[in-house]
Design a protein that fits this description.
Strand content: under 5%
InterPro entries: Integrase_dom_put
Pfam family, one: rva_4
Structural class: mainly alpha
Largest sheet: 2 strands, antiparallel
Number of helices: 8
Shape: globular
Organism: Mycena maculata
Protein name: Integrase core domain-containing protein
Order of helices and strands: HHHHHHHEEH
Length: about 230
Amino acid sequence: NTRIEHLWVEVGTQFARPWRAFFTRLERLHGLNHDSPHHLWLLHQLFLRDINTDCHDFQLEWNLHPLKGGQNKGQSPADIRFISETEHGVREDQPGVHPTVLEEFYGVEEDCDREWRDVDEFIADDQADDVGHAAIEVPTHTSPFSPEIEYVFFNALEDLKTQAVIPDGYGLAPEELNGAPYPSRESIHLGRGGKKISIILPLEVWWPRAVLWAQGLDLMTRILVEIDS
């Protein structure tokens, strides 16, 4: 538990909390409705690739950080994997699975009937007693457009991005800011009802994303109005 809690704190501080703060800002200032399946679809289309990139970058950095204790002290996860593959080889039938995981969950003599099952099933069974809550329901996110209209939407959005259009009504246009600088911090609560913390959102990263959200939301809204009229 201590290790996973440490990892989760690192995930939060390195990239998850800034994204959460950004989405909080979109809802507070820029028209995001978290109950709308169409708004959630738009979030996926605009930002999921960036979030996955941040996840991947964090994974690469984490795998290079030295461990502090145990028999592998001073070695990084990447070091441990390299040494293990050098000493034991790579299992071609289970690519990407660490040898210690295979040793624990695969080919156990006293439980031979487990061998035909997948390793991920073994791990899930082994961890089942540690899960004390029901799975969280994933909110619905659906496209408001047909495939043909989606094509039109994304082409039009590229034009808006190229022209650097900032639509009115989303708290981003110069007259809406009234000369005030765009905020570089956003407050969020830790956990459910936890203490409030201030998250730095550098303008060079998050301002373009806020503008992109406004462009996408305004365009989606206008197209839907035309369809309904």
